[in-house]
Amino acid sequence: MWGRIGVVGNDILDELEWRGLIAQSTDRDALRRELAEGVLTLYSGFDPTAPSLHAGNLVPLLALRRFQQAGARPIVLAGGATGMIGDPREVGERSMNSAETVTNWAERIRGQLERFVEFDDSPTGALIADNLDWTGPQTVLEFLRDVGKHFSINVMLSRETVKRRLAADGMSYTEFSYLLLQSQDYLHLYRRHGCRLQIGGSDQWGNIVGGVELVRRVEGAAVHALTTPLVTDSEGRKFGKSTGGGSLWLDPELTSPYAWYQYFLNVSDADVGRYLRLFTFLSQEEIEELEKSVAERPHLRAGQRRLAEELTTLVHGRRHTEQVIAASGALFGRGDLHDLDASTLDAALAEVPTATVRLDERPTVVDLLVATGLAESRGAARRTVGEGGAYVNNVKVPDEQWIPEEADLLPGRWLVLRRGKRNLAGARVVTA
RNA sequence: GGCAGGUUGCCCGAGUGGCCAAAGGGAGCGGACUGUAAAUCCGUCGGCUUAGCCUACGAAGGUUCGAAUCCUUCACCUGCCA
Q: Residue A171, CA: closest nucleotide via C1'?
């Protein structure tokens, strides 16, 4: 994948364009010229608002990588400071997280950020930073005099988000100040590293332009802004929100590689082409080929398979991907699971949630669903059984009193639990 | 500081003393159809040891046989006035 580093800097904007990765940008021609002139330094920031990045964060993050491959130098920024404040949302004040929480999350996110760009000694070697490093030591007076003075309240009040919030439930001074913090990051990175481009999700446009303005006022330099579109599915829903209500996290503890793979395998036909462009490094020809396949032979779902495979490899690595694909194949077919051997089952079930149960405690299907986490509560488990959505070893179990027997155990003393079409778990049966 | 309005389940939003675990919508979940797709239709959607019990309508008290609904205090939000 790293073989195409030779791409001429000039082409990167066209590349991003056809992939649908450019939502907005400042003077495109000027940016193009600067990219051609030499190694451009750019950055994107990621706030620790959760213990892990999610799939949506991947778009700007991978864009950094695309820039790097095209001969630019990326800076990945963890928002240890901005994460303490919270970017104003469309509606409702954020509840602040404790400093310890933010620090902990920033640490974890930093580890994830490091995996998507290359750190080396070359001119395009990536840098990693945390804005707490320069914001933390700053005094209030310094901040107000050096940064605040350059911002006009009039302009800030006219921002869409601010207007909306003021019209609805109001906004705290804390959140109102967020723009200044992020803007100062850009100024800092410009001064320290000569950073001339900031990218981010399109919801960040206002914040990014704030930084552009600040650099212009203070340093008299014209730096750039470019945003990637917020990914939504064909229904306009926010992307990555359909894994049992939760987000699609990069952290395998929060979203298992299996669940991650399954999510992308299930992307609708209407979205798969767009996602391939946004999330993979496949060439235009390869993607068009896959789109053609989806259009002509949709039941093969070649696009979805490739998308899921690419993304799982990118985030979880080759090995996990192979295991996840094998697990999907072994468990998903409606074939008789008794035919699988113990090692295949062991490997496959390693990819899904598991629990250990004892046969002598006579657990019912309901107990098994709860124990494996397939159901959130006994009530939910009963409902699932009642709705005909509970399966043991690929056989529907319509009775909530059902209890497994010795003969039901698969090789390796496993029971394969399933809720609905695609939520799988393993129960390992032990004897006392 | 004063006055007025507001705070309901994951989200939006009805509900002004019993018929309220709380209308309706959305999201989610399950089923049918199909291709582990979309659309559509059906069902479901606080918890439990489920003919019952527990928790819940910003928080804490109170009135009442009985409160999301009335009263008091507190917190927060919005608007107007100072």
A: B77
